[in-house]
Backbone:
């Protein structure tokens, strides 16, 4: 059966009500479209978690701090629909900006403690926009499960915090980062890279791996592990580093490493911003499934 | 059948799931307890709107700007339960503060444009706390309908804005202010008034009525209608005025009156704060049902 394309909130609610009537469970995969294998992994997780899978495709204006980034963001609904068809997605919810924001929005969901540093420091209002639109999508679709990628680790931590704090009846399921053969994390933004930038981009994972190795080798000072990452990145003069940090499960930067941490980084290649991260497990530390996934 | 008393979120979700299984609709009446006839009117509205009525009783710490006010707030669960029993309320949801906030909350729902003036200017963070706890209650109970009193006009406007902006599938139903025979709006805080303060308190409605009369008589300058209110209040030297304003449906103060407006006021009698408001209809103006109720 072809993936149903739903573009209005009223239609989406009706469609979901019919699914619920039949006693079926719903998993949703919130995306901004331009779907790639990373989204494919999320769809697989969603499929395993529920009877019915809804992919939302919405380039959310209120999470963009720069208008040009919003306008340049890749939009390929026809290709996205084929992508979903091929993966037996039951419905795509692809509302217009006017449908989601018929008037300027006055209500915001914010997780300030988790949202004002790392990516949040460089993209003011970004995570407030993300949390707000995810709350809207959860209220429209009322899914049992929602799947988010670990590439956007700060976003994942914020959504989990929001779900816990506001008692959304939604199970948040993460999916690991999907990478190109050369290690570059999949992202809709990768298609903006010029060929020589694309050749350079895998240095980000290489650098993070160096930091991970130093921690695995016993390094417990965050600054030293970060320095190991930076040394690799500095070898590539066209890379501009936005941040490299080591954070705890609540995405707070740590000075000394005593439990599982995540090495997170954002860099620029020309006008394209890339993010990536690696989980660094400390032998003997409690796995923190609540935040970091299995 | 006796009103069911539910104190945990998990039990509440189970109870609601059973109701839903039976195909019954749910109306909820969020309160902080110390129930009075004003709440009784809300319960009646709820009963008319849905098959099952849930009254929530929760003195929400994050909406109090002053710790002493939180601690002094009246708590009478046994009496509240009898009140609900007598009105055939199906369930009371009365969680502890620890149940609602097992860890310090990090996520907030805010409607800054509607929340930073009037009561919000004098009670910083108050409406953020209200919107956040109402979002939590909506997510726990998932009601079809929720009833709020018009006495808290700013709160009602904020909840409506939040529901619209975040797409909560909840119909917000207002109920008019219920008054004592002498005109004092019912409030759980009235019981704190000393006898001589209680005798003085009806001057608030008397003053607002004077403003309403001046508008009905053709006054279109907000400042002059407000002055009419203040003249009456100034006749009572023990009353301290916090604010008197004339606001539009979005609770924004207006200078000149061209459509339906609300006269809103907050005053202090000793250490007790009283609020009240009156709708002022302008003949020929469109009734604004979305904000102001029928």
Residues:
């Amino acid at each position: 059966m072809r993936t149903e394309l739903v573009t209005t909130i009223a239609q989406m609610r009706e469609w979901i009500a019919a699914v619920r009537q039949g006693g079926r469970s719903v998993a949703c995969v919130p995306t901004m479209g331009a779907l790639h294998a990373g989204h494919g992994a999320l769809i697989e997780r969603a499929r395993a978690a529920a009877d019915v899978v809804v992919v939302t495709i919405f380039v959310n204006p209120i999470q963009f701090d720069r208008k040009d980034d919003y306008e340049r963001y890749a939009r390929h609904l026809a290709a996205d629909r084929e992508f979903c068809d091929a993966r037996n997605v039951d419905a795509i919810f692809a509302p217009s900006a006017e449908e989601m924001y018929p008037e300027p929005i006055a209500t915001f969901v914010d997780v300030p403690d988790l949202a004002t540093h790392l990516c949040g420091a460089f993209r003011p209002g970004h995570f407030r926009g993300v949390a707000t639109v995810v709350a809207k999508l959860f209220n429209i679709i009322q899914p049992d499960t929602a799947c988010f990628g670990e590439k956007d680790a700060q976003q994942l931590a914020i959504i989990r915090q929001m779900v816990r704090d506001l008692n959304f009846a939604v199970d948040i399921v993460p999916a690991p980062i999907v990478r190109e053969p050369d290690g570059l994390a999949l992202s809709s933004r990768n298609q903006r890279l010029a060929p020589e930038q694309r050749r350079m981009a895998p240095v980000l994972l290489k650098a993070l791996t160096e930091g991970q190795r130093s921690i695995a080798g016993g390094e417990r000072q965050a600054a030293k592990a970060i320095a190991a990452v930076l040394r690799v990145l500095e070898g590539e003069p066209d890379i501009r580093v936005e941040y490299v940090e080591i954070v705890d499960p609540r995405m707070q930067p740590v000075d000394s490493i005593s439990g599982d941490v995540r090495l997170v980084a954002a860099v620029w290649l020309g006008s394209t911003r890339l993010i990536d991260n690696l989980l660094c497990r400390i032998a003997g530390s409690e796995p923190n499934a609540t935040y970091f996934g299995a």
Summary: Chain A is about 40% helix and 20% strand. The CA atoms of residues 248 and 261 of chain A lie 5 Å apart. The radius of gyration of chain A is 19 Å.
